[in-house]
C-alpha cells in the first residue's frame, strides 16, 4: 500500500454482519493492521468478507456462511493485498469459493473448516497469482 490507509489498527470482534441484501458482511478497502475475530458474516448478497488493497489482516475464528458469492474474497484492484491470514474459521455453504484470492502477496490459510461451498467439490479455496478473474 503506497497511500495513507483508509483505516488502520482496527479490531472487529464478536460482531454479526448478516443479511446485507446487495453487499458484503465486512468490506475492507485500503486498510492495514485489522483483526476480524469471532464474528459471524452470513446470508449477505455478495461476499462474507471482502478485502481490497489492504495489508496485515487477520481473519480468525469466524463463522462465514451462506453468502451469495465467496466466503472470503481477497481481490486485486491496482496493487493487491498482502500479509493476509485466514485461519480457524468455519466457512461453509457459500455460493462461491470458501476463500478466493487474486494477485495477493503472502496469503496464508490454515485450519479452516469447509463444507458445501460453490458448485463442485473443489470450491473451497482458489489462491491465484493472476490479476484478473475470468467469469
Written account of the structure:
With 135 residues, this protein is an all-beta fold. It has one domain (7-14, 24-128). The chain is built from no helices and 14 strands. The strands form three sheets. It has a five-stranded parallel beta sheet, with no helix packed on it.
Key attributes of the depicted protein:
single chain, 135 residues, five-stranded parallel beta sheet, 14 strands, 47% strand, globular
Largest sheet: 5 strands, parallel
Number of strands: 14
- Helix percent reads under 10%
Low-confidence stretches: none
The first-to-last residue Cα distance is 27 Å
- Average residue pLDDT: 92
Output the radius of gyration.
13 Å
Strand arrangement within the widest β-sheet reads: 1-3-6-9-12
Shape: globular
Brief synopsis:
It is built from no helices and 14 strands. It has 135 residues and is mainly beta.
What is the fold's blueprint, element by element?
Elements: E1 7-13, E2 26-29, E3 31-37, E4 40-42, E5 49-52, E6 55-60, E7 63-65, E8 72-75, E9 82-87, E10 90-92, E11 99-102, E12 105-110, E13 113-115, E14 125-128
Parallel strand pairs: 1-3, 2-5, 3-6, 4-7, 5-8, 6-9, 7-10, 8-11, 9-12, 10-13, 11-14
Amino acid at each position: 500500500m503506497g497511500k495513507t490507509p483508509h483505516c488502520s489498527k482496527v479490531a472487529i470482534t464478536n460482531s454479526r454482519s448478516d443479511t446485507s441484501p446487495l453487499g458484503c458482511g465486512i468490506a475492507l478497502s485500503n486498510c492495514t493492521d485489522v483483526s476480524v475475530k469471532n464474528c459471524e458474516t452470513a446470508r449477505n448478497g455478495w461476499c462474507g468478507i471482502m478485502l481490497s488493497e489492504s495489508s496485515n489482516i487477520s481473519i480468525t475464528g469466524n463463522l462465514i456462511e451462506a453468502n451469495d458469492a465467496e466466503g472470503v474474497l481477497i481481490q486485486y484492484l491496482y496493487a493487491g493485498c498482502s500479509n493476509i491470514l485466514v485461519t480457524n474459521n468455519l466457512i461453509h455453504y457459500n455460493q462461491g469459493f470458501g476463500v478466493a484470492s487474486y494477485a495477493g502477496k503472502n496469503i496464508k490459510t490454515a485450519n479452516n473448516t469447509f463444507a458445501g461451498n460453490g458448485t463442485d467439490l473443489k470450491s473451497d479455496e482458489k489462491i491465484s497469482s493472476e490479476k484478473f478473474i475470468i467469469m
